[in-house]
């Protein structure tokens, strides 16, 4: 119920009354389990994010590009399904609650770990490690921009973001080999 509320309305527009009405419970019962709406948001986000991580860490088939494409597509589909909640989570989760802010780090850690495991990258150099970590915020911000101003198709966004990953890795590899423009 909370996930649906936060998926259809911005966090700041969901009141305790909205929550208790949607759940058909009293305010007293709400406050028995949660100190405030931020705690419910964190709990609801936890459920949604756990589902997202499960989807992202499934083992897709195909080439490395196709696997990246499938995972980016899963992320974008999740963001579309939970537009308001995703916006709140990625824009100001740590301001809502520390628990919600920690979720972003958990998602990023799970995805980077999954990429490294899937690619057999047990011991990567520092710049490749940075590249892996930097790709996640690129996906997050591009998806948020697209959710609010979809100037390209979903498939174009997916292909572009998957291409960004390999472009970033290629630039890192080029830099590591000493062949850089600097």
TrEMBL record:
Pfam annotation, one family: TetR_N
Keyword Transcription regulation on entry: yes
DNA-binding region: 15-34
SUPFAM superfamilies reported in the protein's UniProt record: Homeodomain-like
Keywords in alphabetical order: DNA-binding, Transcription, Transcription regulation
Xref: Gene3D superfamilies: Tetracycline Repressor, domain 2
DNA-binding among keywords: yes
GO molecular function, one term: transcription cis-regulatory region binding
Protein name: HTH tetR-type domain-containing protein
Species annotation: Mycolicibacterium vanbaalenii
